[in-house]
Specification:
about 20% strand
């Protein structure tokens, strides 16, 4: 090899000064090229711009490694910050490399993996990288253009500061390393200076906060290795791009110890963990949660039914009774948009008392957020099947793809109840004045009579007789029923409405 080429190549591959490599090691973090090696198939990475800024020995590859590779044989684009080079910050050439990688991903329909660990833009270089037509704004333009076209997956290992915080936000999913990853528009020092707030980085932009409270993070992990493993598992559920379907895998029956019938309590008001119900329904070990720490009254995630991927939106009665709040509506809407974009059928498992009521949630805009959830669900043209596990009251029925929203089928278990509200609330709403005017024992007798009438009015088999539900299925038969229905529904027409796009109530 030419001596000059060899020296330039080795310098670029080495990254920044050794002292910054030592800092990474002390913090339990991997060097950028080790992260890439762990992510992609051996010897598959083809790098672009390795010798970028080779005129400056402290700017190896200008702090970002970009190139094509394969993951389990599937072609992808990788964009990875090098925190040993000026803390992974962006210069003009950094931005240009990222833009070129994203433009190539669009043209070649390549999924994009972002390995983020960056202090953001170099303020000293702001005129070169910030405002122009090939400036940092073009990165976000390309991310938005790629959204729904190819998967965009972000592993956040360290900071993603200021404008750079938008890179994770435009991705489909973000997995964050606890204690190391952070996203924020302004640092704690800036918050103190500008708005007078005293806070910490972890409280304002840390990984746990974003995964539990803001919803900007989709998974919380403990190491770089775990983050990369999570991202690769996620990738196994989604297709390469919007024109194809996800891969099927060998079918695996549920665990013999998982019995969905035994999960449901005899007391119709008692809580239970919907995860146990899901485990008894899907292929063993296949459920993969998305945003499991955020808005825990609702479960979203991927699974496989007889080897075929499906997206699950399920109530969680074990947390706040499964009532829908502003955050749970947002969580559901985003997940449904994701599944619909990438041809993943949706399965709804309803045990929902409806949307939360009260002045606090009304002020938060629960009507608007609930409407967003319904919009995302109605617009989803992938096959949709709704299973009423126990109760579906009020607009909760609609939010779980009830009959009026045109699912492929509405299936009820024998435990299902469908009504505007529960019997006690309904009787109180209609007969409050009458009840208040009665003394005991007439009051109790009147309430019991009206309760019996109400239950008869919404009797499940009456709803089946009126074709409100398409089938009443025993729990032991539900899995095979769903497998047959999804298999047939694969030919569904994917057109929804003749228009450019709707005006979602976001």
């Amino acid at each position: 090899m030419d001596k000059r080429l060899e020296e330039a190549t080795q310098s670029a591959l080495a990254g920044g000064p050794q002292k910054y490599h030592d800092v990474l090691a002390e913090r339990g973090k991997l060097f950028v090229r080790d992260r890439i090696a762990l992510l992609v198939d051996a010897a598959s990475f083809v790098e672009d711009g390795l010798l970028a800024r080779n005129d400056d020995e402290v700017l190896a590859a200008d702090g970002v490694v970009t190139g094509r590779a394969r993951i389990e044989g599937r072609a992808v684009m990788v964009i990875a910050n090098d925190p040993t080079v000026k803390a992974g910050s962006w210069g003009r050439v950094t931005v240009e490399k990222m833009i070129r990688a994203l433009e190539a991903a669009y043209d070649e329909l390549l999924p994009v993996f972002y390995l983020v660990d960056s202090a953001g833009a170099r303020i000293t270089d702001q005129i070169d990288l910030f405002p122009g037509r090939r400036g940092a704004g073009k990165i976000f333009y390309n991310q938005i253009r790629l959204s729904g076209r190819v998967p965009q997956i972000c592993c956040l290992f360290g900071p993603s500061a200021a404008g750079g915080a938008y890179i994770p936000s435009f991705c489909d999913v973000v997995v964050m390393v606890e204690g190391r990853a952070s996203m924020y528009l302004g640092s704690p020092r800036m918050a103190q200076m500008v708005v007078g707030e005293t806070t910490t980085l972890e409280a304002m932009g840390g990984a746990r906060m974003h995964c539990e409270t803001s919803g900007c993070g989709d998974a919380l992990v403990s190491s770089d290795e775990e983050a990369i493993g999570w991202a690769k598992t996620y990738f196994s559920y989604v297709p390469d791009h919007y024109r194809v379907k996800p891969n099927d895998y060998d079918p695996i029956p549920p665990s013999e110890s998982a019995d969905i019938a035994s999960v449901l309590p005899e007391d119709s008001g008692a809580p239970y963990d919907m995860h146990h119900f899901i485990d008894g329904l899907v292929d063993e070990g296949s459920f993969f949660a998305i945003k499991d720490l955020f808005a825990r009254e609702l479960i979203t995630g991927f699974a496989r039914l007889d080897g075929a991927p499906v997206g699950i939106v399920a109530s969680q009665p074990a947390h706040l009774g499964g009532v829908l709040f502003v955050d749970s509506a947002d969580k559901a809407a985003r997940f449904m948009w994701l599944c619909d974009a990438f041809n993943i059928p949706l399965l709804f498992l309803a045990d929902v008392p409806g949307f939360m009521i009260g002045s606090q949630v009304e002020a938060q805009g629960i009507i608007r957020h609930g409407a967003k959830m319904l919009t995302a669900m109605a617009e989803a043209t992938v096959p949709r099947i709704s299973v009423i596990v126990r109760k579906a009251y009020g607009a909760g029925l609609y939010a779980f793809s009830g009959p009026g929203l045109r699912p492929e089928a509405t299936i009820a278990l024998p435990t299902a109840e469908i009504a505007v509200m529960g019997p006690e609330a309904a009787i109180n709403a209609v007969y409050f004045n009458v009840i208040e005017g009665l003394d005991e024992p007439e009051r109790t007798e009147f309430i019991e009579q009206k309760r019996a009438e109400y239950i008869e009015d919404v009797d499940l088999y009456r709803l089946a007789a009126e074709t409100v539900v398409d089938a009443v299925i025993a729990p032991s038969d539900l899995r095979s029923e769903l497998i047959r229905r999804y298999s047939i529904a694969q030919r569904k027409d994917r057109n929804f409405s003749g228009r450019r796009h709707g005006i979602p109530p976001v």
